[in-house]
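For reproducibility, we list the full input for the flavin-adenine dinucleotide complex.
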Amino acid sequence: MDDRTFRNAMGKFATGVTIITTAVDRDVHGMTANAFMSVSLNPRLVLISIGEKAKMLEKLNQSDAFAVNILSEDQKELSMQFAGQIQKKRKVTFEWLHGIPILNGALANIVCHVYSKQLAGDHTLFIGEVIDVAVREGTPLTFFAGKYGKIANI
Ligand code: FAD
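The corresponding predicted structure, in tokenized form, follows.
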């Protein structure tokens, strides 16, 4: 198969959308990501996958901590901003939980310390041990076949 066929096949997996946030010396960096999954209940572990070209990789190597902010359907613009997809950027205010920056308005903020990491091809898999969560009501932003969407029937 060629790369396009592989990407098309992967795009058939509908996901939510997250923004990963971290900070080095209180300087916050965020990045849109949908490669996120829950891994283990005991201990509580989650996984994210970060591309070798992403600035986020070096930030995470330095901070050893991150938050996964699961976006609500009204946070599409924020997702585009943190994916570098829009020119017009707005100033984003972060809250802090256990010294880790989190985003207001997300459906969930999952705050983690890096538990382990594994190089996998051109990405690095970070497993995070969850130290705290915050949850709110709402409906999710979705991503399917390269397009944002929302869930119609919830
Ligand atoms: P940059 O490209 O420099 O930053 C990203 C953007 O975030 C910039 O526009 C920057 O202005 C903004 N930003 C960063 N920090 C702040 C701040 N403190 N305040 C305001 N704005 C800020 N890539 C992966 O590696 N793994 C994935 O799982 C993944 N999933 C994706 C899912 C979707 C739906 C999309 C659209 C993209 C995904 N990407 C993923 C691609 C990734 O989001 C982009 O390549 C991104 O640009 C990489 O960010 P960076 O760390 O290199 O930083």
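The two ends are 37 Å apart (CA to CA). The longest strand covers residues 108-120. Both points were considered when choosing residues for closer inspection.
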